[in-house]
């Protein structure tokens, strides 16, 4: 199932019984298999306050769980809000994979804003624009040595219920 052009999950549907079985959740599998972001600090320009059932901490971006997320906490859609991941030492990144919305469920993804475009800035000040209308994985033309990564929201796809913009996971390879 693709939602806003992002593959979230695959189901096998039995038309006779009307039951669906989840076969593949590529995002969760990819982020669970990635376990080498050792961030020394994850900060955000704003964070949505904790609700009765969820928190939206910036550290959720690298916890390997697509059911958690960071959510910006300003009034409006969050354009210009950001999170920064600092690493204990510089290392080389060759690609990034990002889940630009709330990956808890298809419903959560659709009800909340998701990032359409973001600026990714490295510790040396260089940057590129990530366009999530095309993909959620970005191969860098040349490996990038960096001590930090900053993700700034440039454009969003509006949610059907909430005007909060979420990011569930970011993995670097």
Quickly list its features.
173 residues; mainly beta; 47% strand
Distance, first to last CA: 25 Å
Shape: globular
Biggest sheet details: 8 strands, mixed
Q: Please state the average pLDDT score.
A: 86
Beta strands, count: 12
Secondary-structure element order, as H and E? EEEEHEEEHEEEEE
Can you tell me the residue ranges where pLDDT is under 50 for at least 5 consecutive residues? Answer: 31-35
How many helices in DSSP terms? 2
Global structural class:
mainly beta
Q: Please give the radius of gyration in angstroms.
A: 16 Å
Helix proportion of residues, in percent?
Answer: under 10%
Description:
By secondary structure, this protein is mainly β. It contains 2 helices and 12 strands, in the order ββββαβββαβββββ. Strands 5, 6, 7, 8, 9, 10, 11 and 12 form an 8-stranded mixed β-sheet that branches. A two-stranded antiparallel ribbon has the order 1-2. The protein has a two-stranded antiparallel sheet with strand order 3-4. A hairpin with a 2-residue loop joins strand 1 and strand 2 (6-7). The radius of gyration is 16 Å and the shape is globular. Residues 31-35 have low confidence and may be disordered.
SSE blueprint and pairings:
Blueprint: E1 2-3, E2 6-7, E3 10-14, E4 19-24, H1 26-33, E5 41-44, E6 70-71, E7 82-99, H2 106-111, E8 113-122, E9 127-131, E10 137-157, E11 165-167, E12 169-172
Parallel strand pairs: 8-11
Antiparallel strand pairs: 1-2, 3-4, 5-7, 6-11, 7-10, 7-12, 8-9, 8-10
Provide a brief overview of the structure.
With 173 residues, the protein is mainly β. It is 8% helix and 47% strand.
């Amino acid at each position: 199932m693709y939602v806003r052009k992002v593959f979230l999950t695959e189901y096998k549907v039995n038309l006779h019984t009307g039951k669906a079985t989840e076969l593949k959740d590529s995002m969760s599998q990819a982020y669970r298999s990635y376990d080498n972001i050792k961030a020394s600090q994850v900060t955000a320009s704003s964070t949505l306050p904790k609700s009765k059932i969820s928190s939206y901490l910036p550290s959720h971006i690298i916890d390997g769980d697509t059911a958690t997320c960071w959510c910006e906490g300003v009034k409006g859609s969050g354009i210009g809000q950001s999170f920064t991941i600092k690493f204990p030492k510089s290392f080389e990144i060759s690609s990034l994979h990002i889940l630009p919305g709330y990956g808890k469920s298809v419903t959560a993804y659709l009800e909340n804003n998701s990032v359409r475009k973001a600026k990714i800035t490295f510790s040396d000040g260089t940057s590129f624009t990530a366009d999530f209308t095309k993909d959620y994985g970005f191969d860098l033309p040349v490996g990038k040595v960096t001590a930090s990564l900053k993700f700034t929201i440039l454009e969003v796809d509006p949610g059907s219920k909430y005007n909060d913009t979420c990011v569930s996971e970011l993995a670097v390879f």
